[in-house]
Amino acid sequence: MSKLPPASVPTRKSIAAPRPGDAVVDLERYVPAYFTWIANKLSGGASSAYLRAFDVGIETWRLLVLLAIEPELTAQSISRTIGMDKASVSRAFKSMQTRGLITIGLDDNDGRLRVARITPKGRALHDQVLQLALERERAFLSVLNARERELLIDLLHRLHDNLPEVELATNRFLDQHHPKARARRPRGASSE
After folding, report:
1. Domain match, 95 and 170 both
2. What is the domain-level CATH number for residue 63?
3. What is the CB neighbour count within 10 angstroms for residue 75?
4. Is 9 exposed, middle or buried (0-12, 13-18, 19+ CB in 10 A)?
5. Cα(93)–Cα(103) distance, rounded to whole angstroms?
6. Is residue 6 assigned to a domain?
7. How many domains does the chain have?
8. Which residue, 48, 70, 60, is CA-closest to 98?
9. 149, 117: one domain
10. Which of 21, 47, 98, 171 gives 58 a disulfide partner, CB atoms 3.0 to 4.6 angstroms apart?
11. Do 139 and 76 fall into the same domain?
């Protein structure tokens, strides 16, 4: 793995050096940090570009992507699919409905469920933003050859599919090393 650019991580001068024997995260090799940095920087850059060009934030774009694929979706199904919290999905839905990008109605099969459907205006906006999104993806992956891109996609699928095991391992660790932690509600957690 190559060295991080100087602006990507704190410098030795900006943080206290660890004492000999102290356990620290090796930021050159800690995979979750790289995923976070890449995701944050990609999302931030995309959001800025989409807002400038189309007056659309990243959350609205993510929902348009899903609604262009599936004819109707609930806030809960979107939350499960992409990990966006349900309240954020609901707020984005309200804004999108106000802009005429989606309609919200009752599910034909289950009248208790509220579903979002993309409108022709929403689909047209999706198609415009898609061109820029695909260009950003092309540029991002341009350092990889075709075989490496396919390998990366396969690895990402496998890592995504393994997330439930990460949560099981986390809970096992907490049960063993911090038994009171599971009963404790995190600060800011909703009561749902």
Report:
1. no
2. 1.10.10.10
3. 23
4. middle
5. 9
6. no
7. 2
8. 60
9. no
10. 47
11. yes
- Report the distance separating Cα 87 and Cα 114, nearest Å: 14
Q: Which two tokens stand for residue 114?
A: 């509220």
Residue 117, phi then psi, degrees to nearest 5: -130, 135
Specify whether 106 is located in the same domain as 154.
Answer: no
Extract long-range pairs of 85-93: CB within 8 Å, 24+ residues apart.
87/190, 88/59, 89/63, 92/59, 92/60, 92/63, 93/63
Residues 155 and 110 in one domain: no
The Cα–Cα gap between 110 and 106 comes to 7
Cα(125)–Cα(167) distance, integer angstroms: 37
pLDDT tens-digit map of 131-162: 999 999 999 999 999 999 999 999 999 999 99
Taking alpha carbons only, the member of 133, 5, 113 closest to residue 68 is 133
DSSP of 90-143: HHHHHHHHHTTSEEEEE-SS-TT-EEEEE-HHHHHHHHHHHHHHHHHHHHHHTT
Instruction: Report the chain's mean pLDDT, rounded to a whole number.
Output: 88
Strand 102-106 to strand 114-118: parallel, antiparallel, or no bridges (unpaired)? antiparallel
d(CA 79, CA 105): 18
Query: What is the pTM (predicted TM-score) of this model?
Result: 0.78
Q: What are the phi and psi torsion angles at 104 (to 5°)? A: -125, 130
Q: What's the pLDDT at 173?
A: 95
Is the same domain home to 98 and 161? Answer: no
Evaluate whether residue 92 is within a structural domain: yes
**pLDDT (mean) for 25-44:** 94
